[in-house]
Predict the structure.
Amino acid sequence: MFRPDRGWVSLRHQALLLLGIALIQPLIGPGIALAEEETTGNAEEGPSSTEGKETAEAPSPWSATAEIYGFFPLRTTGSTTVKGLTADVDLNLEQVLRPLTMAAYVRGSVEYKRLGLLTDLSYVSVRGEEATTSPLGRRKLSATLNNIQGIYDVALRYRFGYREQAIAKGGSFSVIPYAGVRFVDMRYDLSAQFDGPNLSLSRSRSFGGTVTQPLLGTQASVFLSPRLRLFARGDLGGFGVNNSDDYSANAQVGVGYAVGNNTQLNLSWRYLHLGGTNDQSPENAYDINQNGVEMGVKFFF
């Protein structure tokens, strides 16, 4: 009986195997290629994804803001009382700016997660001079007034809603109530000089000082679009703690527009009230109401 050689059997088996592969490769080839691509893709995606997760930094719990602004009162009304004599005040913007010698305004805040501190510092100094001369020029009366108005707020705040930032999704909002202290530094220096043919007199008086007021307030904002937001602020200080007229108040509403990723231009209407008295006789007192335009540049960190 004829017995084929084992080598020939092995060769025949190899030929059949190659023929089978040639027949089924068109059917399974795409699947094998796809599987290889998926395997390769997963192998490449895995490390890069892991690397991205490892290198991605979590948002810092710290944030801060700083704003430089100017307040332009279109109208100032009220009264000033010196030694029991009261003079009413009704000034427009030009009359307020003309005697202005110095003005500085700045706001800031720092926050850790939702809890933070805020400050609002303003300082204004004015000097006014008036003189009158008799028809014959023999008598002259001149008077000078120096006034310093400083308002310095320091308060603890807590934020509800989104973190303060220049750009955010439309509808994003924040509400931030705050409580702290307000230092109101109001000083008046008055001097008068009379010159006549046989007599010359000069007098000077000063009154005022710094009072510390409890302060309560709230600020809020909502984004109308990613770069445009509406904001408002209101606070009340004093509550009659130091004297019967010891009150201060702010009310403000405006819009802000982002001109960069971390910078915003603000325009708002603002009302400011300051009042105080020495509760003595003769009385020294002031009652000031200002409303006008505030413009500022705010930075977010």
User: Anything to note?
Assistant: The first strand starts at residue 62 and ends at 82. The chain has two domains: 1-56, 62-300.
